[in-house]
Amino acid sequence: MTEVALQAVDLVRRIEGDVSHTLVNGIDLAVNKGEFVAITGPSGSGKSSLLYLLGLLDAPSEGEVMICGQPTSKLSESERADVRLTKCGFVFQFHFLLPEFTSLDNVLLPMRAAGVMAEGEMRKRGLALLDSLGLAEHANKRPNQLSGGQRQRVAIARALANRPEIIVADEPTGALDTKSTEQVFSILRDIADNGQTVIVVTHDPALAARADRRVHIVDGKIAEITERGGAELVSPSIAPCEISHA
Amino acid sequence: MKLILNIAWTHVSTRVRQTLVGMAGVSMGVGFTIMMAGLMQGSQLDFLRQLVDTMPHITIEDERRSVPTQPAEQEYGAVQMADIANVGKRPGIKYPESVMNSLRSWIPGDVAPSAKTTAIINHGGARIGITLTGIDPRREVQVSKLASQMREGKIDDLSRAPNGIIMGEALAEKLGVKAGDTVLLIGGQGIQLNSTVAGLYRSGMKRVDESQIYSLMGPAQVMMGQNGVVNQLRLRLNDPMLAQKVAAQVEAQTGYKSVSWQEANADLLSSFTVRDFIVLTVMGAMLLTSSFATYNIISTITHEKRQDIAIMKSLGMREYAVRRIFIIEAAIIGIVGILFGWILGYLLCYGWSKITIFSPLTGTTTPISIYYSAMHYVVVGAISLLCCAGAAYFPARKATRVHPVEIIRGAS
C-alpha cells in the first residue's frame, strides 16, 4: 500500500465577518509520499488557501490535515511551527529571501532554527544544496546580486534544508521567465522523483501536466483530479481519495 | 540563539544611521542623567557636610521632652495636671562632669560642655540679637570645627583677651568691627559686659555666622547670671549618620533632651526628600524619553521587516524567537548607548567640577560639588536598558503577532 504523506479530510476554511466567505469548502485529498501534485484553478478559486492549510501556515475552520499520519488540528501554534520547521518546506511566488543575508545564510536559516546539526555540518549541507541547484558560485552573494530564477532556486534550496517530507510551492514560477520557469519545474520534478512529496499551485497548464496528479479547484471545491497522461479520476466535487489512518 | 543574535546584529549593522541615532539618544539620556545625579547629590552632600561641620552632631540641653511625672500623678491615676510652674529650680545640667565621663565611656566620639544664652551685642549704635555660647577651648576642638573655621585669631585667644569673644565674619562686617575691637554685650537680666573681639570665623553658613558668637564659659555664665552653670553638652560623633540613634540612647540614659543634627534640621531634610523625588522624576523622564528613540527604530525595523517576520514564522520559527530578535536589537542599541552614555556622563561631571561659582551667602568662590558614585552608573544603565527592552517589546510583539499568510498574500 502506498504511504500517504499528507491528507486533508473534509477541509473547510471560512473567513468570518459581516459577510462570511468560504475559501475552501469541504476538500478531501490524500497525497502520497514522493508524489508531485499540481493544484490548479482560476484566480480566487481557493487553491492558495488550500495550500496554506496543507502546509499548516493556516488553520482550518473545520476538518483535519494529517501530516505523515499525525493529526494537526489540535496542535498549538508553537507545535504547528515545529511541524512546519521539520516536515514542510515552502517556496512562494516571491522568493522571500532575507535581503541582508547571503544565499548560503538564507539556506542555513531553517537548519539553524532547528538547531539539530553542527555549524560545519549545516554549512556543508547548505553548500551541497546550492551546488545541486547550480548556485555554488553564488553562495556568498546577497539576493539583490542574483537574478529572479537564481533567487527562486535559493528559495528552493532553503525549502529543502531540513530534509522535509513535503515541499509546498505557491506559484513558484509565477514571476519567472520561461527559462527559469523550466529550471524551477525540473528541480521540483527531480525532488519528487527523489522521494519527497511536492505540492505546487500553478496557473500554467503545461507545467501542471508534468505533475503526477493535477487537482483542479473551483469555488473552494475539487472540480477535477487528473492523473499524468490525462486520465480523469474525479468529476465534480467527488473526491474518493485513498484515506489511510496511519 | 546564535541565529537570533546573527539576524539581530545584521539588522542593526545594516542600518548604521538609524542605529547611531538610537545609540546617541540612549547615550544622551544616560549621560545627562548621570550628570544630574552627580550634581544633585554632590550639592546636597556638600550642604549637609557644611551643616554637620558647623553644628554639634548631638546637643544635650537642660530640659526634658515632657513634663516629669508629678507626685500626685504617681499616687492617683485620675489626676490631671496643668500649668505646672518650674519654681525655684536652678537651670543647667546636674553634675555635668559625671554625665560627660559616663557618656565618654560608650559614645563613638567626644563630648564638651557649654553655656548657652542669648544676648544683644551693641556697637556703634547697632544692636543685634545673638546667641552666646561659652566654651572650653581645650575641649571645643574635640567637638567642633571652630578651630579650622577661624579666619582671624585662634580659639586660644579667648583666654588672652579680656572677656574675649569670637564672632562670625558676617556679623563683624555688619557691626563694622575687627579683631581687637571692643563691643558691649547686654544679657537678658540687664547684665552688661565689655568684650574684646579675639577672633573671627567663617562657618560657610551665613545664618550661623551672623548670629553665633563664642566666649569662655565664665563670661557666658555671667551673662546668664548663673555662675558655674553648664546648660548644654555638645557631642561630636565619628560617624555623623549615627547621631539619631546615639541621641535616643543618650536621652534614655540622662533624661535630658538630646537633639541630633537630623532632628534639628528635620524641615530642611524633608525638603531634600521632596527635592530627591522631583530629581528622580526628571531623571526617569529623561531616560524614558531617550528610550523613545529605540522605540522609533524598532518600530521602523519591524515595519520594514514584516515580510521577513512572515517568512521566518512560515519556516517554523516560533513567535517568541522572532520577537526576541527585535528585543536583542534594542539591547544592542541600549548597551552600546549606555557605554557611551557612561563616558559622556563622566566627562560632563568632570567638566562641571572644573567650574567655580561665587556664593554671595558665604562670599567665597568654590568649585561645583560633584558626587561620583558607581551606583549612579549601574542604576542609570539598568533603568535605561529596561526602558530600551520595554520600548522594543511592544512593537516587536505587535509585528510578530501578524499572521504570515496575510503578509505572504499581500506580497504575492
From TrEMBL, chain A:
It holds the Pfam family ABC_tran. InterPro entries: AAA+_ATPase, ABC_transporter-like_ATP-bd, ABC_transporter-like_CS, MacB-like_ATP-bd, P-loop_NTPase. GO terms for molecular function: ATP binding; ATP hydrolysis activity; transmembrane transporter activity. SMART domains: AAA. SUPFAM superfamilies: P-loop containing nucleoside triphosphate hydrolases. One of its GO terms (cellular component) is membrane protein complex. Residues 6-245 form the ABC transporter domain. CDD domains: ABC_MJ0796_LolCDE_FtsE. Keywords: ATP-binding, Cell inner membrane, Cell membrane, Membrane, Nucleotide-binding, Translocase, Transport. Involved in beta-(1-->2)glucan export. Transmembrane domains (TMD) form a pore in the inner membrane and the ATP-binding domain (NBD) is responsible for energy generation. Belongs to the ABC transporter superfamily. Macrolide exporter (TC 3.A.1.122) family. This is ABC transporter ATP-binding protein. It comes from Bradyrhizobium lablabi. The lineage of its organism: Bacteria, Pseudomonadati, Pseudomonadota, Alphaproteobacteria, Hyphomicrobiales.
